[in-house]
Amino acid sequence: MFLTGTQLKEVFLKAKKQRFGIIASNVVFDTQVRALIQGYAAVNSDGLMQMSTGACKYAAGTSQDLHIGAKMISAMVKIFSAQFPKCGIGLHIDHATPNYFDFIKFCIENDLVSSVMIDASAEKLEDNIRITKEVVELAHKYNILVEGEIGHIKGAEDEIVSEDELYTKPEEALEFVIKTNVDLFAASVGTNHGVTKGENVVLHLDLIKEIDDLLIKNGVERGLVLHGASGLTDWQQQTAIANGVVKINKDTHYQMDMASAIQEYWEKEKYAIVCPPDVDPAAYIPNKSKFDPRKWLIKGEEKMQNTVMEFCKMSGSANNSILL
Ligand SMILES: [Zn+2]
């Protein structure tokens, strides 16, 4: 079933207490929504769908109207997840920068989401705090959770970055959490997307613990979030969870699943839609039973479903739904 913000809060509190991680999965299409929700439900896990502003624009078609896109994705997630009463599914806005403030407001006021991320990490810390606080004040009126972030470097194309810029400073994390009152905090520990190309980027899993310990010591314990986690090993993710991470973002892995499963199908079934070189095109009849989109999209869907089931077992969220 679809989770309200209040229920999602309960999910993250349980995850933090028992030290397991909730897999947050980016979606655009109905095939992905089906695959993921079925996967979460199959292992009795709660889960979170995420829509980026780009995904919302894409979902709206040529109008690029992200309000339409968000309504569509939200409706899909709500309607589909209603089939699974023992599996809680939330919907989150991923990486909305400050220029999308009105969009965040629209999604909150129209009851489309359970949580939102305001990513003002490209701003100076004081501006990030001011903007994030504004989103928190609005969202909390509707019991919607807010994820904030500090520590991202500016510009993904920067060739040279200093270590200090890459990693979240624990004291800044503490200041940010106290001043903004965010529910979830994205720590920058070396996994940033757009930055992960650097072989000199080292994962600082101990930094997660340092931040978590500092927040707890100051009476402001929060769930920490790991971004750009598609390429990480099980051990790295499990260590991050043990150190305080409750939300693990996944996008790229599913994209690869979908592409590879469908590529495999078409490599085998090419001549169902392409005339073989030794056949007269006038005599060629394409094979409807093979090119029906339901026959090949399902391959990607099945692979994604299996992947999210494995993710939930790895992160410990399997058999831990608050609705069981
Ligand atoms: Zn991210």
What is this entry, summarized?
Helices cover 49% and strands 13% of the residues.
The total strand number stands at: 8
Strand order of the largest sheet: 1-2-3-4-5-6-7-8
CATH homologous superfamily (4th level) name: Aldolase class I
Mean pLDDT, nearest integer? 92
Order of helices and strands: HEHEHHEHEHEHHEHEHEHHH
Secondary-structure arrangement, i.e. CATH architecture: Alpha-Beta Barrel
- What structural category characterises the helix and strand content? alpha/beta
Shape: globular
Distance between the termini: 12 Å
Compute the number of structural domains.
1
CATH class: Alpha Beta
Strand proportion, as a percent range, falls in 5-15%
**How many helices does DSSP assign?**
13
What do we call the CATH topology? TIM Barrel
Small molecules held by this entry: zinc ion
Cofactor: Zn(2+)
Protein name: fructose-bisphosphate aldolase
Binding site for Zn(2+) 2: 119, 149
Enzyme class: lyase
Q: Which features does this protein show?
A:
single chain, 324 residues, 49% helix, alpha/beta, zinc, glycolysis, binds zinc ion, fructose-bisphosphate aldolase activity, TIM Barrel, lyase, eight-stranded parallel barrel
Provide a descriptive summary of the structure in words.
By secondary structure, this protein is an alpha/beta fold. The protein has one domain: Aldolase class I (TIM Barrel), CATH 3.20.20. The protein is 49% helix and 13% strand. An eight-stranded parallel β-barrel has the order 1-2-3-4-5-6-7-8, surrounded by nine helices. The radius of gyration is 21 Å and the shape is globular. The structure holds zinc ion (ZN). The site of zinc ion has 5 residues, from loops.
